Amino acid sequence: MSGVRAQQKQKTRQALIVAAFNQLSAEHSFSNLSLREVAREAGIAPTSFYRHFKDMNELGLTMVDEAGLTLRQLMRQARRRIASGGSVINTSVLTFMEFIDTSSNQFRLLLRERSGTSKAFRAAVAREIQHFILELAHYLEAETPCDANHAYMQAEAMVTLVFNAGADALDQDVQQREELTERLIWQLRYIAKGANHYGTHQVNSKPS
Amino acid sequence: MSGVRAQQKQKTRQALIVAAFNQLSAEHSFSNLSLREVAREAGIAPTSFYRHFKDMNELGLTMVDEAGLTLRQLMRQARRRIASGGSVINTSVLTFMEFIDTSSNQFRLLLRERSGTSKAFRAAVAREIQHFILELAHYLEAETPCDANHAYMQAEAMVTLVFNAGADALDQDVQQREELTERLIWQLRYIAKGANHYGTHQVNSKPS
DNA sequence: TATTTTAGCGTACAAGTGTACGCTGAGATT
DNA sequence: AATCTCAGCGTACACTTGTACGCTAAAATA
């Protein structure tokens, strides 16, 4: 049971995933990929694809998981930087922008399938984003004078803005990205300010 | 020059556009459409398609324009409601949600092509959204104590949140939509509050 | 060692795609 | 009335796609 067999299988399985990611780009989305092209790039026969995934759909869901994993790992790293004395907003934003830069295809997948044609895909992406929101909400509830409900809404708004800024950044050059990032940081400050205002007291009263 | 000829041409051209919109759905995106299927639904031969558009791409851009037009018309209507004494945030949000409900396929197109595979598409959608942002920014600058720069950032953040909430709403039932709308309204208040705080005075000082 | 399992291959096929080409007949133009 | 224009059609072709089926050789198991 040395597992030479299973080991090789994992290897080509991974080759398929890598091949699929490589074929994603600004001009090529997941739904444009064909089983045959992916198999070709992975160096196996089209029909061998089925030894690993029953479907292109199944491949896609695996890719979403993988992208989510990458993102979560990066953000864990961000939390370490924050713990050792970085500004929360700045560090998080910069880390996210780093993700977009170094793993743009993974981000593109999440971004596109969020509003894609497969309900399963949309749900999978929504789950990944939800992770983020909950984590941030938990942090905000603990570290700022905000009740749970407002902490959640605040987190949701922030994650939405960050994610969207990431999407815009994909098409931009360095100069534009810097301006975008600066605007984003201001916008996050707005939200923090507003949430702390409304979330701290008189939660149920209408604002003026 | 009665134009019977040209009139008929416009008619089938419109039939193509309608056919294409009809084939959009939660499970079917623009890039899934085939020229042949669109032509079939419009009731013409595949090759006749070329009498109207050089490309599926050209059809798509026309559709984006049309969707943008619908949206702008709806928002003009919203402005009238506001002028006759409605709350700004509430009225705008409700109007937008109405757009998503009654013209979901048009919204889906904008939503998806915003991060789609064609740069021209992305630019076209970005332009439509930019209209919105500028219009709102102008309003905010005039009606609230906010300098131009902060008014723009505020408007951008608000439009982003509204647009994204619309995207989420597409998959939701009435109950969930109500909750979503309520959260959205709070989030917009956060932004308004924060922007007025930072944008009114001491613009260049760091927040506490 | 003999047997079973299985990753990967090659062949084959039906279905669908975009589009080149030439024709027709009904409006438009002269 | 004679001519031109051109929206729409049908045929045809070269491709690409997913996948069913059966084979092989090497690893795993007995």
Number of domains of chain A: 2
Distance between the termini of chain A: 71 Å
| Beta-strand fraction estimate of chain A | under 5%
Report the radius of gyration of chain A as a whole number of Å. 20 Å
Task: Classify the oligomer.
Answer: homodimer
Q: What do we call the CATH homologous superfamily of the largest domain in chain A? A: Tetracycline Repressor, domain 2
Please name the defining characteristics of this protein.
0% strand; disordered C terminus; Arc Repressor Mutant, subunit A; 208 residues; mainly alpha; Tetracycline Repressor, domain 2; 75% helix; DNA-binding; homodimer; elongated
Task: Explain the overall architecture.
The structure is a homodimer of 208-residue chains. Chain A is mainly alpha-helical. Chain A folds into two domains: 1-53, Homeodomain-like (Arc Repressor Mutant, subunit A, Orthogonal Bundle); 57-200, Tetracycline Repressor, domain 2 (Orthogonal Bundle), CATH 1.10.357. The first copy, chain A, is built from eight helices and no strands. Chain A has helices at 4-23, 35-42, 56-83, 88-102, 104-113, 119-143, 148-169, 174-200. In chain A, helix 3 packs antiparallel against helix 4, helix 4 (88-102) runs parallel beside helix 7 and helix 7 runs antiparallel to helix 8 (174-200). The radius of gyration of chain A is 20 Å and the shape is elongated. Chain A binds chain B through residues 26-29, 31-32, 108, 111-112, 114-119, 122, 150, 153-154, 156-157, 160-161, 164, 167, 170-171, 183, 186-187, 189-195, 197-198, 207, and chain B through 26-29, 31-32, 108, 111-112, 114-119, 122, 150, 153-154, 156-157, 160-161, 164, 167, 170-171, 183, 186-187, 189-195, 197-198, 207. Chain A binds a DNA duplex (30 and 30 nucleotides) through residues 1-2, 4-5, 8-9, 12, 34-36, 44-48, 50-52, 56. Chains A, B: Residues 11-71 form the HTH tetR-type domain. Chains A, B: Keywords: DNA-binding, Transcription, Transcription regulation. Chains A, B: This is HTH-type transcriptional repressor FabR.
